Amino acid sequence: MSTTDTPDEHQHDPQHEAGVENALRAGLEDYDLSPEDVALLESGGPGGPEERPDGPLPVLAVVGRPNVGKSTLVNRIIGRREAVVEDVPGVTRDRVSYPANWAGRDFTLVDTGGWERKVEGLDLAVAEQAEIAIDLADAVVFVVDATVGATASDEQVVRLLRRSGKPVVLVANKVDGPRQEADATELWSLGLGEPYPVSALHGRGTGDALDAAVRLLPEVSAVGGGLLPEGGPRRVALLGRPNVGKSSLLNRLAGSERVVVHPTAGTTRDPVDELIELGGRTWRFVDTAGIRRRVHLTRGADFYASLRTQAALEKAEVAVVLLDASEPITEQDIRIVSTVVESGRALVIGYNKWDLTDEERRHYLEREIEKELVQIPWAPRVNVSALTGRHVDKLVPALDTALESWDTRVPTGRLNSFLGQVVAAQPHPVRGGKQPRILFGTQASTRPPRFVVFASGFLEAGYRRFLERRLREEFGFTGTPIELSVRVREKRKR
Known about the structure:
Rossmann fold; alpha/beta
């Protein structure tokens, strides 16, 4: 053995790793730890109990016509100004769903902002987008402008709500004082029960309305495709912007014309997921083509695309994002990839229409990938042609690799032995005369792998990225996002 091997001589020695872990744990007693920290440390390591939800979080949709204050209410609920609120035609937003918590309950909040704002066909656009949002929700907050009263558009949405059978909380917004409360009581006429008078702008009354909404939510979402049993077929979302070949690929994989490719007027729904035999096993491809927008509605395209993407990811474990290799990578492609990473799902990138690319295009594609997809060098890549069937069989090993990484748990002893070596070789830079020290690391959960590092001071973003890169070099994690959070803990006062 050469001398360069000495730092690794204890690597994967369980006795040494257990010794490292115990020594570090003992040292943690000198630091101020919260009850949550202690619970995390006690549950860490292989076989330890792990907080994993029994299914997708319940979904609460905020619906209503334009300018009633939906986005202001959404910002109020999530506690930050994230939803775009200015009334400008064509304002688009990357995300329409947000993680939210109220009174200790976690749920997903869907904002149906970003509506078609042309006056012609407005009622139709309102009803159609509300219909999609209602379909994808467990409960609905219906926002009406109390100062205007119930309009024909509002009554149209009420009819949809009744047909859906979904539970509804009626919010009368823009009630800034007692004078407007009389306006709010007139909304009893909608037949949706008691209107909750609120001012989304000032926060008045929003707590009562949210209490009522959260009471209507189930523990686990009923719209996330139902609870699929553990150990069943692995669940794959096939995502991508329009016309990249999702339907063609699904038909190729299924061996038949299962998906209609041409658009038709009217909203069609196909809630059936595809069970497909691949590589001698059954896979469940969750339906992402189930909601098609009407041909004449163009501006809402991004809105529909992101709703569909979100709904598919709710039900999936791994996403195959299909890109058109014959065309430059677009902003929408990057946005879909980012949505998958943010959702914490495993990821495979499929470059479709490979048969249409020549040497020159492939050269430019490589440069585009280096520039546009620099954040996800860890995602497996498969070059396919849905038309000819070229290399579609290579999807299976890529999916298997990504899912195995997504499920990977690193033993606590091994993780800390690795962190010790990394920090010894490249310690955190000194800042303001102090050098933060990593005290202990543990893996909090899998699906995706989430790591928590306890440190004596703030770790800079650059150093965190360095740790993530080294984690990937050491443990693989091909095809899965990983999350690294740092808890700064100070020494107890003597």
